[in-house]
Amino acid sequence: MSLRNKDTNMEANDKKRNLLLEIYQEFGSRFCDMEIVYGDGNPDSGIVFIGEAPGKDEVKLKKPFVGSAGKILRDFLERAGFTRQDIYITNAVKYRLFRINEKTGNKINRPAKKEDLENCRPYLIRELLVLSPKIIATLGNVPLQTLMGTEAKIGEVHGKKTDIKIEGKEFLLYPLYHPASLIYNRSLEDVYRQDLSGLENLIKQLKAGEGIG
Length: 213
Ligand code: URA
Known about the structure:
CATH class: Alpha Beta
Bound molecules: uracil
Helix content: 40-55%
Mean pLDDT: 93
Distance between the termini: 15 Å
Number of strands: 8
Largest sheet: 6 strands, mixed
CATH architecture: 3-Layer(aba) Sandwich
Radius of gyration: 17 Å
CATH topology: Uracil-DNA Glycosylase, subunit E
Number of domains: 1
CATH superfamily: Uracil-DNA glycosylase-like domain
Low-confidence stretches: none
Strand order of the largest sheet: 1-3-2-6-8-7
């Protein structure tokens, strides 16, 4: 790469980071009473993983996927030869989904409601348009349905690449089960491994073809 091209690339990458920051700041001021976690990793990697929503551990460390689901994801990524710095990780819902347990007064996780998806979807869309990844890997139903609508079911589409259009721009979507589903259903482990190896092959093909990362 020539020095001039390198400079232009660096400028584009800085611009991307500034635009992400802008989106996150806007989100932060709109949902200032929530416990928020933004995306993390390498915005230039060309690969974006999208989870559901941050939990207690993520809020504490201000990073997505650092708790038990994050450990499963990291182990699988490592087996496929990736680290967190090879990808960007974000969530469909960027605030913690919780309710208060009336007996204990403690916060307990709750499922995402339609309203949460509607609140957060515009920011996710803007984030994806800025990141402009070659591959979007959704983790579980929440990010899948945020992008594809509620008819999409992870049990039917996991491990199958699909072309999708977001605001007229084409993306390659590769749906995966959510890593936390393996905690409750160990029989999904083989499926998950196969799906990740499908993703690994896809990334290799794209790298060979046009260069990502
Ligand atoms: N589960 C998610 O979907 N996202 C996180 O950030 C952590 C756990």
